[in-house]
Amino acid sequence: MQEIINLNRYPLDREGSAEWKALVEQSAAELEATGMFNLEEFILPGIAQKAAAEIAPLMATQSYAHKRAHNIYFLPDIPGLAPDHPALRKVETINHTICADQIPDSLVLSIYTYAPLARFLAATMGKPSLHTMADPLARANVMAYRQGEALNWHFDRSEFTTTLLLQEPEQGGVFEYRTDLRSPNDPNYAGVAQLLEGRDPEVQRNGLKAGTLNVFRGKNTAHRVTPVQGNVDRMIAVFSYYERPGVLFTTQERIGFYGRAG
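User: That's the sequence. What structure does it adopt?
Assistant: Structure tokens below.
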């Protein structure tokens, strides 16, 4: 892994060392304060481009085009809200997805399954352990956004999301988020409606660079990726880790996200 991950800057292979503890503490503090942390240049120069080049032929010919109109909750309705409530305003998401079973020997999978990475992420969140997902399709995905395509406003179902940006677009494709728009005790439907109407002054932007590992708590923080502009796709790997081993998607979830059950 020394030829892939920037272990001099991010000493994941020196668990328990002073340098490792300092990185964990810094990352945990950023996660607590802002809901995310970024490890820029997480992979060595040229590795992001090489990983993107590995995926590109598959993305062009075998990716699943995921297009859907949805509300911010990715749910058909919310109990207690009228169907025409402004918090249920429909938006559109379009991307192209490659699943883990399509890239078994890729750089992306080698990074995802690197055990010290999961242990580091667990430490930043104060968890005893994290496990790679057992699902052969969903455990790690690579998503591409082409000209005019975007990931629209939504809340995540999982507690946190880990991504690795492989390729930046020429323009657009900016990660935008609104920290703690809701809470477990307050759905804040009025605030959600304000966000969807483009009137929330607390929306922040994060221009990620290729090679950056991003860890993000999106369960109560609304977020999106703005439409891509130009002829270069925005390409990003999404890594799924869970506190318990053996997690699988349902057949319905696989078909919904990937167009196939296996």
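The mean pLDDT is 96.
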